[in-house]
């Protein structure tokens, strides 16, 4: 009883309950085949999520279509449990016509919102499993000169649904000058096309200077240029994960070689903020539109996330309704005239019969 007792211990109580319950986080990785997405995920979390995956041949890849693959693993570090779910999208961008390749991705993200909304509206609200996608790593091909049209279209459709973090894969294929130019070009194209990528939270005034400097460095490094590797090489008596080439070694965790450390630091430092943005912005926007849409009046997705073709159709619909109203008014007017004519005919007939009876 000699220990301090007061409401200042409330953070400790919340910490104990949260640690006991554990954390959930869902990460989606999108990018065309051959950019090292699976290796990057395994390198980030020091685990092998794709041990049972069969690498398709070139012939199978031509005939394959985009599919959604979900892998879950529980990670424990210093008594803190994290249930990590990685959503992979093999087959993205592999076909010649990739205009519809992101539709299954959009459908998957919105389906997780719908599942969470259904569970939240149900009877058992205490044990809701959060499968919503909290972050999306979009891996960009380093061989291009910036973003491709499919990259821009994908980000425009997804930036209102999920937190997008752009990544340049296999950055060791670029020189330092080429990488700097490509980063600048990608940021310019993102701003030009009004794409909203994940925005880092502003630091409070009472934060440490080291944390403010860390946030500034992490934000300045976007888009992150990374490499992935599961192989280790002994360098100066120290085991280092790297990619070995005839001309030298590219170290995975060397900040002069890639932004791998910055990407991992960003994901861990702002993991809770990514979840809060998903809850307070993306999910609440979906939920408000979903509840405001009465049953049978169309899917909320078309009202909430309308593309250019949908907008064009919405501009035409009011004109069609006006024409239909005009047609109905004209038909009612014609029917009223017919009724008036019938009344006149009946009056004339009755008056003629009356005159005959008088005679």
What features would you describe in this structure?
This protein is α/β, with parallel strands linked by helices. The chain has a single domain, classed as P-loop containing nucleotide triphosphate hydrolases (Rossmann fold, 3-Layer(aba) Sandwich), CATH 3.40.50.300. The chain contains eleven helices and nine strands. It has helices at residues 10-21, 37-45, 58-63, 103-120, 149-158, 176-192, 209-220, 260-269, 271-292, 300-304, 308-358; strands at 23-30, 69-77, 80-88, 135-140, 164-168, 224-225, 232-235, 238-245, 248-251. It has a six-stranded mixed β-sheet, sandwiched between helices. It has a three-stranded antiparallel β-sheet with strand order 7-8-9, with no helix packed on it. Strand 7 (232-235) and strand 8 (238-245) form a beta hairpin. The protein is elongated. The N and C termini lie far apart (122 Å). Mean pLDDT is 79; it is low at 299-319.
């Amino acid at each position: 009883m000699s220990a301090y007792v007061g409401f200042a211990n409330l953070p400790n109580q919340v910490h104990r309950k949260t640690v006991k319950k554990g954390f959930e986080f869902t990460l989606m990785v999108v990018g065309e085949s051959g950019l090292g997405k699976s290796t990057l995920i395994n390198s980030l979390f020091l685990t092998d999520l794709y041990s049972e995956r069969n690498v398709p041949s070139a012939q199978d890849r031509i005939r394959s279509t985009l599919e959604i693959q979900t892998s879950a693993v529980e990670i424990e570090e210093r008594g803190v449990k994290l249930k990590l779910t990685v959503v992979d999208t093999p087959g993205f961008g592999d076909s010649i016509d990739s205009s519809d390749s992101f539709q299954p991705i959009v459908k998957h993200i919105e389906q997780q919102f719908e599942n969470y909304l259904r569970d939240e509206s149900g009877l058992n609200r205490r044990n809701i499993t959060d499968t919503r996608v909290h972050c999306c790593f979009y891996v960009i091909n380093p061989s291009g000169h910036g973003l491709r049209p499919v990259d821009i279209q994908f980000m425009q459709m997804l930036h209102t649904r999920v937190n997008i973090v752009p990544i340049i894969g296999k950055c060791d294929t670029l020189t330092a000058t080429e990488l700097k130019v490509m980063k600048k070009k990608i940021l310019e194209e993102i701003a030009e096309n009004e794409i909203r990528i994940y925005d880092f939270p502003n630091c409070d005034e009472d934060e440490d200077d080291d944390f403010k400097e860390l946030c500034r460095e992490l934000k300045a490094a976007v888009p992150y240029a990374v490499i992935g590797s599961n192989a280790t090489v002994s360098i100066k008596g120290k085991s280092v994960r790297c990619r070995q080439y005839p001309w030298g070694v590219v170290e995975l965790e060397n900040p002069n070689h890639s932004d791998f450390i910055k990407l991992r630091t960003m994901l861990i430092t702002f993991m809770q903020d990514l979840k809060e943005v998903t809850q307070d912005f993306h999910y609440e926007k979906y939920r408000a539109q979903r509840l405001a849409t009465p049953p049978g009046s169309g899917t909320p997705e078309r009202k909430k996330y309308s593309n250019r073709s949908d907008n064009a159709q919405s501009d035409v619909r009011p004109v069609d309704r006006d024409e239909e109203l005009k047609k109905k008014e004209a038909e009612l007017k014609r029917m009223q005239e017919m009724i008036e004519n019938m009344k006149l005919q009946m009056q004339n007939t009755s008056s003629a019969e009356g005159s005959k009876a008088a005679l």
